[in-house]
Amino acid sequence: MKNERPLILVSNDDGYLAKGINVLMRTLMEFGDILVVAPHTGRSGKGCSITSEVPIKVEPVTNEPGLKVYSCTGTPCDCVKAAFYSMMRKPDLVIGGINHGDNSAVNAHYSGTMGVVIEGCMKGVPSIAFSLCSHDEDADFSPTLPYIRKIVATVLEKGLPKGSCLNVNFPNTPSYKGIKICRQAVGQWVNEWEMFDNPRGEGKWLCLTGEFDVEETSIEADRVALDNNYVTITPTTIDLTDYKLLDEMQQWGL
DSSP for 36-81? Predict the structure, then answer.
């Protein structure tokens, strides 16, 4: 129907009860009808993983005009796959977030929030990930909302190229200098493991922890721009081909 409101599919990796996704879904209702399919509990760090060993369960949580919410026992990527399987029509937009935590730089590879939008992107739908650089369960998302509205409205109007999605990150500050379009920063996690005694006496436990080491200072890199109080938008592609190396390898004579 020509007069249908846009359909926006929303998921996350913090679970359907997380504050970030609840703030997001209510904000997005001004743009269209909202379908939320999100994990029943936290699934951070799941990236694009899928569940293949056990069945997953999808259960209704909320059904009100313009908003339907379902919980899913699978990964964020499972949630998007389940939504696409069951929807009567293709969504106009897929959105992940608002994530509790930074997904800039190489964190995008681990992120279940990015897993949501990469799956949406692979299905040919414009997709956006939103993340706030705070792991606080009661984080203040209000500074992000004017920017989210602006970005969503622009993407609904202009669309995105096939195979491309957006990774948007917000500093954990009460206000921002503005938006900066960035590339992914170079960096890595260091001191990632911490040893603990096993109280059952069966050896040691290792706990994933660590600090992120940014290996550059250019304001054009997303992690650096975040540290300088900018909202960062990193255009991201699902094509992992290294085209420069591809051209070089044509001369290798393999």
Answer: EEEESS--TT-TT----SS---EEEEEEETTEEEEEESS-HHHHHH
Residue 123: CA count within 13 A, CB half-sphere: 22
Rounded CA-CA distance 75/91 in Å is 20
Q: How many domains does the chain have?
A: 1
Which residue in 98, 128, 101, 129 sits closest to 44, CA to CA?
101
Over residues 114-120, the mean pLDDT reads 96
| pLDDT score recorded for residue 254 | 87
According to the model, what pLDDT value does residue 47 have? 81
Under 8 Å between Cβ of 193 and 200: no
On whether the CB atoms of residues 113 and 12 are closer than 8 A, the answer is yes
| Angle between helices 112-122 and 76-86 in degrees, nearest 10 | 30
- CA-based nearest residue to 12, from 22, 1, 26, 2: 22
CATH (domain of 235): 3.40.1210.10
Which pTM was predicted? Answer: 0.90
For 156, the domain range is: 7-184+212-249
Instruction: Give CA 183 to chain center in angstroms.
Output: 16
